[in-house]
Amino acid sequence: KAGVTQTPRYLIKTRGQQVTLSCSPISGHRSVSWYQQTPGQGLQFLFEYFSETQRNKGNFPGRFSGRQFSNSRSEMNVSTLELGDSALYLCASSLGHHSGANVLTFGAGSRLTVL
Amino acid sequence: EDQVTQSPEALRLQEGESSSLNCSYTVSGLRGLFWYRQDPGKGPEFLFTLYSAGEEKEKERLKATLTKKESFLHITAPKPEDSATYLCAGWVDTGRRALTFGSGTRLQVQP
Fold first, then answer.
1. Which positions in chain B touch A43 (Cβ < 8 Å)?
2. Which of A1, A91, B25, B76 fits a 20 to 30 Å CA distance from B95?
3. Peptide bond into A61 cis (omega under 30)
4. Average pLDDT per consecutive 10 residues, chain A (115 residues; last block may be shorter)
5. Interface residues from chain B to A (CB-CB < 8 Å)
């Protein structure tokens, strides 16, 4: 059974550019959540999508956005990149809506470096 | 503000030397306490979920326990392959419905 697939795994951008990251959840999983991981802040919640609708959003500026397609695949976009956006971006999927009852399965992440 | 604090930040053990990792939380309305393991270059891998004080779960050399204020991850007779960062996370069913992660404990088990 294929796991959560994230692409690209590594990318380098410069300040002011924008980036799109992709996530393919486990087959049958309808919820996709995104987390940002940095050495200083740890794992922080970005947003969750379920059935193509954003269900929940963390405390990140509007430069961070996402969407989910009918096949549950999700993308997140960061516009006007800043140096502080350098991080590992993790996608996680779960069967049902993100809750204490549903286990998140994480992908390997997309490591973004902003120069 | 909901907070999850893990200690120690880093831990070095000799193979076979048992120890415990701590996760304390100051969240109201905690509905679940999750433990994950993260290896370098990989995403977190689910280990356990605990829902109520007094609950315990075991998997191989790992046992997780939960009280009203903290959780412990006990590692019995660890092996080098247990080396990883262990993350705990709390789930609160009100307000922002997301996991609040601690900063993790980096465990190194030396042969």
1. 44, 87, 89, 99, 101
2. A91
3. no
4. 92 98 95 93 92 91 97 97 97 80 90 98
5. 31-32, 34, 36, 41-46, 49, 51, 87, 89, 91, 93, 96-104
